[in-house]
Amino acid sequence: MEPITLNWSGGEDEFLLRLGELEALDDLTDDGVLDFRFRLSQGAQRGGLAFSPVKIRHVIACLRLGLIGAGMDRKSADRKAKQAFEDGDISELNLTAYMVISHSLKGKDHDPLATTEAAEAPTAFDGVGSTETA
Questions:
Q1: Within a 10 A sphere around the Cβ of 21, how many other Cβ atoms?
Q2: Is the pLDDT of residue 126 over 60?
Q3: DSSP single-letter state for residue 130
Q4: Which helix (H) or strand (E) holds 7?
């Protein structure tokens, strides 16, 4: 799976949660990454993503792990995720975390369908010398 490139409060970066990062986020969050994703989405029902029932450390960990999964070194990813919290808005960070998790869980992109030209209709011989379209 390819990383997703996002413009967020930390700049423009690639994010990807591979299996190892997803398992680490599972271990860090109270009820696992799928529940964490669901709770991130609940902010919209509460009046804004800033009101999502999530812990700040889980959001920062998700962003840090997504940066690491896309190839950033651990120290830079940790510094960048924490700086984004200081510089940004929690609504933005919640949305970014939601998008990173969603992208990482969406599965493989399938090959596009091949285009084929329509085949000519077969003809049947009626025995008299004319042909009829089947």
A1: 23
A2: no
A3: -
A4: strand 4-8
